[in-house]
């Protein structure tokens, strides 16, 4: 039973041109609407100090902290038994000055705890002025 005589059957054909057109429009839309985020490292410009060396004041208390945890107050070696005992040493070094400047000269290899001990003793002694001594660069 052949109903169609003489006609050849046409093979179905997929036309890709409209599909490519639609994909191109979608691609352009995605490219235009996508935001690109850049993860950059934190850039910090540190301030530079060009001030002249300040005049040494007589009311300073010089506290030195060595790399192995030894303390010296005004070039006199002192042992650290606790913040309260060290506060007494700082008060004696201050003499009649009610609020001297405590200058902490800590070695670069000194532990943080050693420096915090001095800060805690200065707070216990009632001294609110603390500063750290630094080295200046040799080229300037």
Based on the coordinates given, report the CATH architecture of the domain at 60-132.
2-Layer Sandwich
The CATH topology assignment of the domain at 60-132 is: Nucleotidyltransferase, domain 5
User: How would a textbook summarize the main sheet?
Assistant: 5 strands, mixed
Helix content class: 25-40%
> What is the typical, i.e. mean, pLDDT?
81
Rg is 39 Å
Proportion of beta-strand residues: 15-25%
The chain-level structural class is alpha/beta
Number of strands: 5
What's the helix-strand series?
A: HEEEHEHE
- The CA-CA distance between the termini, in Å, is 108 Å
Gross geometry? rod-shaped
Poorly predicted regions are: none
Q: Report strand order across the widest sheet.
A: 3-2-1-4-5
Please give the CATH class of the domain at 60-132. Alpha Beta
Count of DSSP-assigned helices: 3
3D architecture notes:
Helices cover 31% and strands 16% of the residues. The chain is of the alpha/beta class and 140 residues long. It has a five-stranded mixed β-sheet with strand order 3-2-1-4-5, with helices on one face. It is rod-shaped and about 125 Å long. Strand 4 (101-106), helix 3 and strand 5 form a beta-alpha-beta unit. Helix 2 (83-94) crosses helix 3 (112-125). The mean pLDDT is 81. The protein has a domain at 60-132: Nucleotidyltransferase, domain 5. The chain contains three helices and five strands, in the order αβββαβαβ. The chain crosses the membrane at residues 12-32.
């Amino acid at each position: 039973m052949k109903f169609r005589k003489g006609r050849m059957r046409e093979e179905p054909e997929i036309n890709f041109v409209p599909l490519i057109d639609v994909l191109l429009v979608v691609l352009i839309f995605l490219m235009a609407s996508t935001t690109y985020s850049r993860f950059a490292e934190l850039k910090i410009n540190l301030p530079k100090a060009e001030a002249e060396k300040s005049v040494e004041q007589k009311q300073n208390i010089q506290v030195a902290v060595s790399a192995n945890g030894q303390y010296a107050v005004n070039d006199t070696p002192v042992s650290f038994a606790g913040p309260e005992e060290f506060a007494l040493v700082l008060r004696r070094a201050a003499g009649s000055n009610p609020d001297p400047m405590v200058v902490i000269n800590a070695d670069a290899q000194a532990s943080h705890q050693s420096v915090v001990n001095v800060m805690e003793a200065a707070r216990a002694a009632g001294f609110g002025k603390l500063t750290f001594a630094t080295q200046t660069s040799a080229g300037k």
